[in-house]
Amino acid sequence: MVCHFSADFTGMKKHDVQIYMEIESPKGTLHEYLDDDEGGEGRMRLPVQKVKNFKNKNKTDKFVLNNKIIWMYSSDLHPKKGKHTYYVRLVAYDAQTYDEIGHSSYMSYTMTGK
Questions:
Q1: How far is CA 100 from the centre of its chain?
Q2: What is the pTM (predicted TM-score) of this model?
Q3: CB atoms within 10 A of CB 33
Q4: CA 18 to chain centre
Q5: Which end of the chain is flanked by fewer CB atoms within 10 Å, N or C?
Q6: 98-99-103 Cα angle (round to 5)
C-alpha cells in the first residue's frame, strides 16, 4: 500500500515533521495486531501504522513536502481471512513536541486475506 502526498506547513521554524500512516477499522478504531513481547511481558496490542520522518533542512518557517511517499507491505496489516476494508489517513506531528499539526481525510483500502 502506497500513499503519495504533498503538504505545506507554516510556523515550523527549526522543527521537523513526522508523518504517520494510520490504519483504522470501519468502526473508526485503530487497527491493531497482537505481538509477542520478547521481554517476557506477554502479548501486546500494537497499532498498525507506518511513520516517516522529514527534516526541515533549511530551518525556514514555511516547510513544504512535495510528491512524497509513505508505504507499507499489505502483509503488515495482518489481514484475517476474507475481504476486508480499512480506512487510511496520514497524520502529521511536530517531531520535537509530538503535537498533532494536521491530518488528511480518510481513504479506503480493500484487501482479501487468505
A1: 12
A2: 0.78
A3: 15
A4: 9
A5: C
A6: 110
Does position 20 have pLDDT exceeding 60, yes or no?
yes
3-state helix, strand, coil in the chain (%, to 5): 5, 60, 40
Q: Which three three-digit cell numbers place residue 65?
A: 513536502
- Number of domains making up the chain: 1
Annotate 71-90 with b (16+ C-beta within 10 A) or e (fewer): ebeeeebebeeeebebbbeb
Q: Which three cell numbers stand for residue 31?
A: 487497527
Q: So what's the pLDDT on residue 38?
A: 59
Q: How far apart are CA 97 and CA 65, in angstroms?
A: 19
Domain encompassing residue 33? 2-113
pLDDT digits (tens, 9 = 90+) for 32-59: 877 766 555 666 777 888 899 999 888 8
Q: What is the CATH number of the domain that holds 14?
A: 2.60.40
Query: How does pLDDT run across 89-107, given as a tens digit for each residue?
Result: 899 999 888 999 999 988 8
The residue that leads in pLDDT, 63 or 113, is 63
Grid coordinates of 52: 516517516
